[in-house]
Amino acid sequence: MSFGTLPNALVMIAIVVAVLVRRLSWSELKNSDADAWRGPLIMCGVGVYQLYGNHRYGVIDVALLVIGAVVALGAGYASGMVAQVERRAGKVFYRLGIPGLGIMVAYLVIRLGLAGVGHLLGAASTIGGGALILSLGANLLTQSLVIQGKAHREAEEYSVR
Fold this sequence. Notes:
The protein is mostly helical. The protein has helices spanning 5-24, 33-52, 59-82, 97-121, 129-154, 156-160; strands at residues 27-28, 84-88, 91-95. Helix content is 75%, strand content 7%. A hairpin with a 2-residue loop joins strand 2 and strand 3. Helix 3 (59-82) packs parallel to helix 5.
């Protein structure tokens, strides 16, 4: 690991820990669709920006990026579907719970495995922070939108406000 990738790795670890801690505990879901997509969309933008600097993409790079995106979206959808949404005192709260944690851990293991395969095959784009940040952003965006949809369907007060 070079000195340039160390800060990216530390940022990724901090983001993953913060997201897992926040999403495993009950959190209020604000009645704003922007709250659901703003942070993850910014992460996607940062990931695309970091990937943009590496203009040479081979077939292996593109294939691993697409596989990573499919895994991220699938895991985001699955963890959003198992998330718990409930009303308390006129407010809507959510958390992932143990099934959601299992899905997130499996996703992270698969994503890091893809980075390892990319390293072995010489696909530089899947190793760097850009691909990881983009993948995690896509995962969280999908997860947030699914949770937001569940809140609209299941929590009457959430939709009425």
